[in-house]
Specification:
This protein has 289 residues and is of the alpha+beta class. It is built from seven helices and 15 strands. The chain folds into two domains: 121 residues, D-amino Acid Aminotransferase, Chain A, domain 1, CATH 3.30.470; 148 residues, Alpha-Beta Barrel (D-amino Acid Aminotransferase, Chain A, domain 2). 30% of the residues lie in helices and 28% in strands. The structure holds N-(5'-phosphopyridoxyl)-D-alanine.
Length: 289
């Protein structure tokens, strides 16, 4: 089935949905977004995504145009209308139109709301192609905790990695690990997991948080703290997490093998915990519906 879009309440094909050139999202990248995975017709970790959406909007002073219940209904309707499984739901809220291009915010912004659902790649475990990464200095702004649509830096970094024959970048800010261009990074050091703390320099990833919670529940020690470059380079395993990648192994950094150069046992454990959690979530939701 085709992708669907709902722009300011009107359902339409994504390719025909139009916004004005005076929309601040178009002119300034003045908007917030979320990418929510959906499996078997149900958005996954939806409340967490909606909480982060609401936080990002509040951090940049865009009024949240919908209630939590309305968001939930809209995202779910998008998945249903698309008929895709797995699907992604892309949600974007911009500060809306400006009468003329100037930097000052409008007095009473009327946010533009876009929700789109489309086919997601099937992340079957036998499809996983472990990543080769390169390190780059993290030259993004210092509010990476806000999920803004201004993604110029992320695009430059990702495409620099591709240009150099790698899959993505691992970012370092003054010798400390932050994250990848569109995912969080978790290291396995011996039998524990180490990952950067949730501060203003990384996105507070929904997948990251869930994987760490599942790890703790599964008896795996977790340290959230400053992670130094040498720890990245000597890690036994490196794992990235995001809605798009779920739990994904990294086998090479800057041409050097990570561990033995194969996806490791910690990746397998975390992935198994994550897949089990997904199964339980579906069982619970189909039981209650
Ligand atoms: N990216 N860090 C960055 C910079 C991201 O853009 C993302 C998500 C993540 C992982 O967050 P989550 O687990 O909530 O997906 C970390 C989305 C998927 C994207 O831009 O497409």
């Amino acid at each position: 089935m085709p992708a669907v879009a709902c722009l300011n309440g009107v359902w339409q094909a994504p390719e025909s949905a139009k916004v004005s050139v005076l929309d601040r999202g178009f002119l300034f990248g003045d908007g917030i977004y979320e990418v929510i995975p959906a499996y078997r017709g149900k958005p996954f970790t939806l409340e967490r995504h909606l909480r982060r959406l609401s936080r990002s909007l509040s951090e940049v002073g865009i009024p949240d145009p919908l209630t939590a219940d309305d968001w939930q209904a809209l995202v779910t309707e998008a998945v249903t209308r698309s008929g895709e499984d797995p699907a992604y739901v892309y949600v974007q809220v911009t500060r809306g139109m400006t009468p003329i291009r100037h930097h000052e915010y409008p007095d009473s912004p009327q946010p533009t709301v876009l929700v789109m659902a489309y086919e997601a790649p099937n992340l079957r475990r036998d499809n996983i192609r472990p990543y080769r990464m390169i390190t780059c200095e993290d030259f993004r702004w210092q509010r990476a905790d806000i999920k803004t649509t201004s993604l110029m830096a992320a695009g430059l970094l990702k495409n620099e990695a591709l240009r150099r024959g790698a899959d993505d970048v691992i970012l370092l800010r003054e010798g400390n690990l932050t994250e990848a261009s569109a995912s969080n990074v978790i290291l396995a050091l011996g039998d524990k997991l180490v990952t950067p703390v949730r501060d203003n320099l990384i996105l507070h990833g929904i997948t990251r948080d869930l994987v760490l919670e599942l790890a703790v529940r599964g008896g795996i020690p977790v340290e959230e703290r400053v992670v130094r470059e040498f720890e990245l380079r000597s890690a036994d395993e490196i794992i990235i997490t995001s809605a798009g990648h779920e739990v994904w192994p990294v086998i090479e950094v800057d041409g050097e093998a990570v561990g033995n150069g194969e996806p490791g046992v910690m990746w397998q454990r975390l992935d198994a915990l994550f897949q089990d959690y997904k199964k339980e979530a579906f069982a619970a939701s189909s039981g209650s519906s």
